[in-house]
TrEMBL record:
Entry-linked Pfam families: FAS1_DH_region (PF13452)
Taxonomic classification: Bacteria, Pseudomonadati, Pseudomonadota, Gammaproteobacteria, Steroidobacterales
Name listed for the protein in its UniProt record: Acyl dehydratase
SUPFAM superfamilies hit by this protein: Thioesterase/thiol ester dehydrase-isomerase
Naturally occurring in which organism (per UniProt): Povalibacter uvarum
CDD domains: R_hydratase_like (cd03441)
Domain FAS1-like dehydratase: 5-137
Length: 147
């Protein structure tokens, strides 16, 4: 059973610099063919100051900047019985190669369904850049199957 006293607890505040090479690899991995994500000249021609960060790449950056298993250990989840249930992004501004992004993450909620057969743990992360500008809010849900 999840310990609901953990709701509101800070998990980490971590900062990472967005690297051009990592952006190019991510674009290739997801099959992105728009050259603004891989070619700096194309990005500038499109009005960007550098390679833009694809929306879901924020999850990769957060995993690199922090210890993604910390929440699993803290909440005493069984790694063999959990699944990623949902991911939500609310974007406020673009991020670009060279930016330093800070992720401030906390446990936002815990709840159960089906009489406790399914337990959900929800984290929220506020993402800001090196100027303190809000880039995105990320909400992530994990589900643990108990039966």
């Amino acid at each position: 059973m999840l310990d609901k006293s953990l709701i509101g607890r800070s998990l980490h505040t971590s900062t990472i610099q967005v690297e051009k090479g990592a952006l190019r690899l991510f674009a290739k991995a997801i099959g992105e063919s728009d050259p603004v994500y891989t070619d700096e000249a194309a990005a500038r021609d499109a009005g960007y100051r550098s390679l833009p960060v694809p929306p879901t790449f924020l999850t990769c950056l957060e995993a690199q900047a922090s210890d993604p298993l910390k929440v699993i250990e803290l909440a005493k989840l069984d790694l063999g019985r959990i699944l990623h249930a949902e991911q939500q992004f609310i974007h406020h501004a673009m991020a670009f190669a060279g930016d330093e992004l800070t992720f401030a993450t906390h446990i936002a909620d815990m709840y159960e369904k089906k009489g406790g057969a399914l337990e959900f743990l929800v984290t929220e992360s506020r993402v800001t850049n090196q100027h303190g500008d809000s880039i995105a809010d990320i909400r992530c849900s994990l589900v643990q199957r108990n039966s």
